[in-house]
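During the second year of the project, the team shifted from modelling isolated chains to modelling whole assemblies. The rationale, set out in the original proposal, was that interfaces cannot be judged from single-chain predictions alone. As a representative example for this report, we include one of the complexes processed in the last quarter. Its constituent sequences, exactly as entered into the pipeline, are reproduced here:
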Amino acid sequence: MKATASIHNEDVISLNIGTDPGAFRVFAFGSELDYIKNRKVTGIRYLLGGDELPATLQHNGATVDTLDATQSAALVLVLKNSRDEILLDHYPVAMLSNYFRTNSTPGALKNDVPFDLRHVDWNKSYLLTLAAISTTNDALVQFRVSFK
Amino acid sequence: MQAIKNTYLIEVSMGGSVGANTQRRIGDIPQLRGRVINGIQAFCSTEVGTAPSGGTMVVQADLKNIVLTLVTTDSNREFVREYPIYDLNPVLNGGLHRELANEVIQWEKSYITILGTSPGPAANEVLCLNVHYGEKVA
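Output from the structure prediction step:
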């Protein structure tokens, strides 16, 4: 039996993008993942609100919304390396969810999108909203980053 | 699936007037000149709600009537001819993306063909192609 993708090390980076974020807003990741900048990023996973995560979560003592498939389709990810070269150019965030990629078929595909991203500079990397997103609470976007 | 090292998102506009059997050139992509292309994905409004340029995205049903022709720099060869865009969308393809055999593409000679408009894209809508690229060889 083929095993699912193995995870060597994984960390979670969370971005609070606020309530009702507007279109073309940029949210920088900051320095939280600086410690893995010399490691190879092999996977980035994202989970859909409502389908893979509860519609709301408790985060740092506050109630936050997770984003469903339609809301997530308004988000793209731009990852740069330390030489300011763009590694991932406007990569759709929803496509980092296996559930979404398999047309909302639970368990259809367990293998994550394989990446080989070197020297990601998280300080220069960002999340971009392409359209306004309507939320009740602050929205939380979390990426599960696997690295070697 | 081959690991993704670099991606570049191309927006292909359907232009001001759309009819059956019309071609739209992709145009020169300076970032991809001389780069080996090893994978490609096509996105519609399901994956990308609005084009990064702000344009309206084509919808999923429209993908059935769009095909892609890629021309290589090597002797103007049509490396991929009229490949169904529908098959390049991972959501419609079991979550997998198509890999390409490490060719350098002449983007200014490559094009999409709109086979029909019912279903099909409307004027000025945008199709996004996410190109996975590697080393520069030229």
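The radius of gyration of chain A is 15 Å. The mean pLDDT of chain A is 91.
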